[in-house]
Design a protein that fits this description.
Length: 214
Amino acid sequence: MVRSLRSLLLLLLLVAPSAFAGNPWEELMGRKPQMWSDPQGRFVIDLPQGWKDEPKSSVANTVDFWRTDAEHGVTARVSVEVRVVPKGVKLSHFVERVNEDGRKSVREHRILQQDQIQVSGVAARRQLVTYQVLGHTEIVNEAVQVILVGDERAYVITLVSPAGTRGLFWEEFELMTKGFSAGGSESSAVRTSPDQPRKKLRAGEMVNPDALKY
């Protein structure tokens, strides 16, 4: 029996060495979710190890998380934006509003892919977007957005990173969206006002383009 166990372990190491490239304990025992609760009670999200939270976001209705991949010298940001919406608003209508806002705030806003997914049992739209930073056409960022609508709230969860680098953070972003759940009262969200000034993106700034005020 001992010989059989050793043979099995050797086979696993030879066939799937990549499975042990991360945390061996997590691979054997399973990863335990690290839940982060919004201080205003608006949502809960699974926050993988290494991601930092920035509760003092420059946008009142947005919470930012970020992580730097030291090996590649790349920083990514995940933003969770909360918007108050009319009760009964359709997901497709809200997605179009998000994209309209995005086109106003950045250059060359392009939607490359879209699909439907479920987030905590709620229908959501996932899309891949690329855009140029205003005033710096050589800087291209890509954003993966997961958009969902609740009773009187809508959420835009966005992963932003330099073009071609989202693969470094993709698995962690999937953990975040799969572990996301909405909560709290409508009063804790912030209504967007069309009269508020717009914020321009700085060179290299990685923010959620849909979290800006228009």
